[in-house]
Design the sequence.
C-alpha cells in the first residue's frame, strides 16, 4: 500500500517557479536539540537515579529495552513536547532520539514503543513510588555543591482535570470539575522541584499537610542537618497540625496565608478605619497599611502571630491575613517574603502546561503518580538547559516552551559513518551560538 505521506504536494509558486514538497528527505530529525537534553541528563544523572530505584522483575534473557533506556526515551520525548506514549511509535525511529539515547542512528536497535512504555508506567508498586519520591528529594539536594544556610520551600496544589473514572478523582465544587489536586513543592529561590504528590481532588487536611512536610523535610535533613527551612503556602496549608509540627521542629518556620473571619475583622477594624480615612483625606487611589497582632482560634492550644495587610481603594477595603512563626517586620513579611510565593505559580505552569504533567489518564493512581515523577524528571532537564544558558542570553530567563522552540526544535541530519557520526544542523539557525555554548558547557562539566 502506498504511504500518502511520501507523495509530493504543492505550495504557491514564487517568481513563476513551481514549489513541490514531500516527506522524503531521509534521515532528518525535527528535534536536533534532544542531544542537549541527553548531555543535561548525563550531567545530573536523573534517569540512572530513577532506574536504580525501580526493581526490574523481567526475565533478563528476554529483555530488549533496559529500564534506563525506556525512561530515557520517555523523559526526552516529554521534554521535546511529545507527552503521549503513543508518540514513541514514530519517535523510536528518529535518528536524533536514538543518538541521544545512546544508540547508533542507522545500525542501532530502534527505541521502545508505546506498549513497552505503558507496561513500565504500570509496573511500580507503592514501595517503588516511595523510593522514587525519595530520589526526587535527593536529586534536589544533590544539585548543590555545598549545603545552603537556609532554603524556602513553596508548597501549593493545582487542579488536574480528569476525563474518566480514574481512582482518587473527586468532584471539586470550586473548579466545577472532577479532578485531582496534586501537591507541588519547589525551592523558592531557584524554582527547583522538590516533590510532586498526586492526591484526590479536595483541599488537603491538616494531618495530610503535616505528613507531607514531615517526610520531605526529614529527607532534606538527611543531606543538610543544619539547614534552616521556611515553608510558604496559601491558606490551604495554614492548618493547626502543620503549624504545630513546624513549631516543634528545630530550624523550621512557616509563612501561610490565613482566611479571614469575624474575629479577625474585629481585631483589625480600628486600623482599617484609620487607613480608609487617610486615603479619603489624601485623595490617593490606594493606601496600604499593616498590623501585626496575636490570635488564637478556639481549636488551638496557643496564640500565633498574624499580619494583616489592609488596603483602601475607591472600591472599599481589602484585608488579607498571613500567619507566621517568623519575627520580622509586618511590611517586609508580606510584601517581600509572602508575595514572592507567586513565583511558585510560574513553576507549576511550566510543569503542568508546558510539560503536560496533567496528562494523568491512567486508571490506577500509582501509574499516574509515576507519570508525575517522569514529568518532573523532564522539568529537571529543561531547568538544567536554562541554567546553563549564557547569562546575557534571553534564554537564561525564558520559559520552557521558548527553550524548546529555540533550542530543541531544530532540524538535524544525522549521518552514520564507519568511524564516526556527523550531525548537520541548519546554517540559518538563529540561536546557533547559544546551542554551541550549551553543548560546550555540558561537555566541559563531564558526566
Sequence:
Amino acid at each position: 500500500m502506498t504511504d500518502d505521506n511520501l507523495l509530493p504536494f504543492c505550495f504557491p509558486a514564487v517568481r513563476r517557479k513551481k514549489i513541490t514538497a514531500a516527506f522524503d528527505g531521509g534521515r532528518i530529525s525535527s528535534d536536533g536539540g534532544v542531544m542537549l537534553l541527553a548531555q543535561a541528563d548525563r550531567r545530573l544523572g536523573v534517569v540512572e537515579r530513577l532506574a536504580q530505584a525501580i526493581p526490574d522483575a523481567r526475565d533478563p534473557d528476554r529483555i530488549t529495552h533496559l529500564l534506563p533506556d525506556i525512561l530515557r526515551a520517555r523523559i526526552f520525548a516529554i521534554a521535546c513536547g511529545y507527552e503521549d506514549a503513543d508518540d514513541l511509535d514514530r519517535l523510536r525511529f528518529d535518528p536524533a532520539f536514538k543518538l541521544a539515547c545512546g544508540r547508533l542512528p542507522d545500525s542501532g536497535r530502534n527505541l521502545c514503543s508505546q506498549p513497552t512504555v505503558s507496561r513500565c508506567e504500570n509496573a511500580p508498586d507503592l514501595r517503588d513510588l516511595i523510593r522514587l519520591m525519595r530520589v526526587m528529594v535527593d536529586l534536589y539536594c544533590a544539585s548543590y555543591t555545598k549545603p545552603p544556610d537556609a532554603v524556602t520551600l513553596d508548597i501549593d496544589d493545582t487542579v488536574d482535570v480528569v476525563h474518566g473514572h480514574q481512582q482518587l478523582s473527586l468532584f471539586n465544587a470550586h473548579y466545577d470539575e472532577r479532578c485531582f489536586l496534586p501537591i507541588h513543592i519547589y525551592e523558592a529561590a531557584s524554582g527547583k522541584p522538590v516533590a510532586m504528590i498526586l492526591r484526590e481532588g479536595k483541599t488537603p487536611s491538616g494531618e495530610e499537610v503535616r505528613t507531607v512536610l514531615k517526610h520531605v523535610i526529614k529527607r532534606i535533613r538527611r543531606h543538610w542537618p543544619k539547614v534552616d527551612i521556611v515553608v510558604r503556602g496559601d491558606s490551604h496549608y495554614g492548618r493547626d497540625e502543620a503549624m504545630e509540627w513546624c513549631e516543634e521542629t528545630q530550624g523550621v518556620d512557616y509563612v501561610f496565608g490565613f482566611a479571614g473571619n469575624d474575629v479577625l475583622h474585629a481585631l483589625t477594624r480600628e486600623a482599617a478605619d484609620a487607613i480608609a480615612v487617610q486615603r479619603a483625606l489624601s485623595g490617593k487611589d490606594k493606601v496600604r497599611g499593616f498590623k501585626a497582632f496575636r490570635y488564637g482560634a478556639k481549636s488551638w492550644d496557643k496564640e500565633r502571630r498574624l499580619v494583616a495587610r489592609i488596603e483602601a481603594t475607591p472600591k472599599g477595603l481589602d484585608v488579607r491575613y498571613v500567619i507566621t512563626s517568623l519575627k520580622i517586620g509586618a511590611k517586609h513579611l508580606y510584601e517581600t517574603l509572602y508575595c514572592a510565593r507567586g513565583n511558585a505559580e510560574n513553576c507549576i505552569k511550566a510543569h503542568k502546561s508546558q510539560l503536560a504533567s496533567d496528562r494523568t489518564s491512567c486508571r490506577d493512581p500509582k501509574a499516574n503518580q509515576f507519570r508525575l515523577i517522569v514529568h518532573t524528571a523532564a522539568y529537571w532537564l529543561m531547568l538544567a538547559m536554562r541554567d546553563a544558558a549564557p547569562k546575557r542570553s534571553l534564554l537564561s530567563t525564558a520559559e520552557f516552551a521558548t527553550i524548546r522552540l529555540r533550542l530543541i526544535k531544530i532540524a538535524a541530519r544525522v549521518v552514520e559513518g564507519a568511524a564516526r557520526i556527523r550531525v548537520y544542523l541548519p546554517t540559518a539557525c538563529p540561536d546557533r551560538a547559544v546551542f554551541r555554548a550549551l553543548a560546550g558547557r555540558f561537555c566541559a562539566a563531564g558526566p
Q: What stands out?
A: The chain has three domains: 29-121+380-413+427-445, 126-253, 262-325.
